[in-house]
Amino acid sequence: MLQKITVVGAGNVGATAAQRLAEKNLARTVVMVDVVEGVPQGKALDQWQSAPVEGFDTRVVGSNGYDAAADSEIFVVTAGIARKPGMSRDDLVKTNAGIVSSVSAEIKRVAPKSIIVMVSNPLDAMCYVAMKATGFPRERVIGMAGVLDTARYRAFLAEALNVSVQDIQAMVLGGHGDTMVPLISYTTVSGIPINQLMPRDTLDAIVTRTRNGGAEIVAFLKTGSAYYAPSASAVQMVESIALDKKRILPCSAWLQGEYGLKDVFCGVPCRLGRNGLEEIVKIELSAEEKAELHKSAENVRDTMKATGV
C-alpha cells in the first residue's frame, strides 16, 4: 500500500477513479484536487462515508490546491474539458495543453519523485506536455490509452461471440484516437485465434467500432463523455504500479527507437511496476500492423506539434 495517490480533476472520470482507488485500498490516502470550490471536498466526503459499507480504510480527501497532494507517489491526471458531440480529441489540444501544463508544474513542485498516469485528452499529446513541463524521465509519465481501447475491443468481441470477456486476449496499440491499431494477429479467445471464430468482415466492423468507441458514447450522452471504463483502465495501471505487479499493459510511452519510432508518445506494450514504466515489451508485428502503428504515431506527432510545447 502506498501512502498517497492524488487524482487531479473531480469530474466524472476523476471522481470515479478516486472511488475505485479507495475501494481497492491502494493507498492510505486518496486526494482529489479540483479548481471548483467545494466539489472535490463534497465528493471526497461522500466517498469516505461509503467506506463503512464498502469496507475500505483509505481516507479520501478533497482540495482546491496541491499542497494536500504533497509527496504523493502517483498522480492520475484527468483535468481538462471533455469532448462534445462532433468534437475530435485533437480539437481539445490547445485548451487542455494549457491546463495540463499548469497541473504538471504543480505536480513537480509538491511531488518531484512521483509517477504520472495521464488520462486527459488528446492523451498522447498531453503526456508530451506533462513530460516537458515536469522534466520527468519517460519511466514516470505514462498514458492511459491502450488499456481502455483494448477493453472496448474485448467487450465488443465478447458480445459478438457470446463468450466471457475474461476469455478474450487482445491488445490495441497506437495513438488514442481514430488511428489506434487493434492487433488482430494477437487476438485470441482462450488461445484460439480470432480468425478461426469470426469472419473477417465482422472483425473489421468491430475494429472500426473500437476506433470510434469514445465518439459512440459521446453521441449518446450528448453533454459528456465516457468515464466508467476510462476510470477503471487508469486504476488498473495504478494498481500494477502500486502493488509492483509487473503487468504488461498497452500504454502510451515515450519511444526512443522502439518499433522504429523515436521522440513520440504512442501506445505500446509496457511492463508496469513500482518504478513506473519498467520495460517497453517488443513484439513482432505484421507488415500491415507496423505500417498502421507508424501512421498512428505520425498522427500523434502532428498533435504534439499543435500543443506549441
Describe the structure.
The chain is built from 10 helices and 14 strands. It is of the alpha/beta class. The chain folds into 2 domains: 2-143, 3-Layer(aba) Sandwich (Rossmann fold), CATH 3.40.50.720; 146-306, Lactate dehydrogenase/glycoside hydrolase, family 4, C-terminal (L-2-Hydroxyisocaproate Dehydrogenase, Chain A, domain 2, Alpha-Beta Complex). Strands 3-2-1-4-5-6 form a 6-stranded parallel sheet, sandwiched between helices. It starts with a strand and ends with a helix. 50% of the residues are buried. The mean pLDDT is 96.
Low-confidence stretches: none
User: How would you spell out the order of helices and strands?
Assistant: EHEHHEEHEHEHEEEEEHHHEEEH
Give average pLDDT, whole number: 96
Assign the CATH architecture of the largest domain.
Alpha-Beta Complex
Please indicate the count of domains.
Answer: 2
Strand order of the largest sheet: 3-2-1-4-5-6
DSSP, total strands: 14
What gross morphology would you assign?
Answer: globular
Helical segment count: 10
**Which topology of the largest domain does CATH recognise?**
L-2-Hydroxyisocaproate Dehydrogenase, Chain A, domain 2
Give the gist of this structure.
The chain is α/β, with parallel strands linked by helices. The chain has 10 helices and 14 strands.
Note the topology.
Elements: E1 2-8, H1 12-23, E2 27-33, H2 39-49, H3 51-54, E3 59-63, E4 74-77, H4 93-110, E5 115-118, H5 123-134, E6 141-143, H6 146-161, E7 168-169, E8 172-173, E9 181-182, E10 188-189, E11 192-193, H7 200-211, H8 213-221, H9 228-242, E12 247-256, E13 262-273, E14 276-280, H10 287-306
Parallel strand pairs: 1-2, 1-4, 2-3, 4-5, 5-6
Antiparallel strand pairs: 7-10, 8-9, 10-11, 12-13, 13-14
Helix pairs in contact: 1-2, 1-9, 4-5, 5-10, 6-7, 6-9
